[in-house]
Specification:
Elements lengths: L10 H22 L4 H20 L11 H4 L11 H80 L1
Helix pairs in contact: 1-2
């Protein structure tokens, strides 16, 4: 397997990193109070100064102007219908029709939810009505039991008096 390189070594970047490393080592020497701390600081900061001076004048070939028309086709010159603009317009039309279909589906869903709500309200009302009728029936059944007990009591009294 061949080892592909990731790019060329940039000399400015190399010296920048080297200078930063020397400054860090100098600061470590300072904290621990070792010899040559001041010399390492001076050497590292001098390298950094040179790198900053050189990089201030450095220009890269990638300094090109952005082609915004490729991202936003509507920015291209008027009357110039390119393939990108046609593709963009087609995509926008498809997006619009998809959005309209989605709006219709949401409207249908809203209607269905409204119908479900109405059905549930009707069922709740019917249930309440049934509950009220059952309470009336239970009351009548209680009265019927009371009357039956009175009749049975009178019948027992009648039967016991005839013997």
């Amino acid at each position: 397997m061949a080892n592909k390189s990731k790019g060329k070594l940039n000399l400015i970047t190399f010296f920048y990193g080297f200078g930063a490393a020397v400054v860090l080592v100098g600061s470590m020497f300072k904290f621990v109070d070792w010899d040559f701390a001041n010399e390492l600081f001076i050497a590292g900061l001098s390298i950094e100064v040179l790198v900053f001076l050189v990089s201030a004048f450095e220009r890269t070939p990638e300094d090109t102007e952005y082609e915004w028309e490729r991202v936003f086709p509507q920015l291209s010159k008027e009357g110039e219908e390119t393939a990108d603009i046609a593709h963009y317009n087609s995509a926008m039309n498809q997006f619009g029709s998809t959005l309209n279909a989605l709006t219709d589906q949401i409207s249908g869903l809203n209607n269905a939810i409204g119908n479900i709500k109405n059905e549930m309200t009707q069922n709740a009302n019917a249930s309440k009505e049934m509950q009220d009728k059952m309470q009336g029936f239970n009351k009548q059944l209680g009265e019927y039991n009371e009357h039956m007990e009175k009749i049975n009591s009178k019948y027992r009294d009648f039967l016991s008096g005839t013997k």
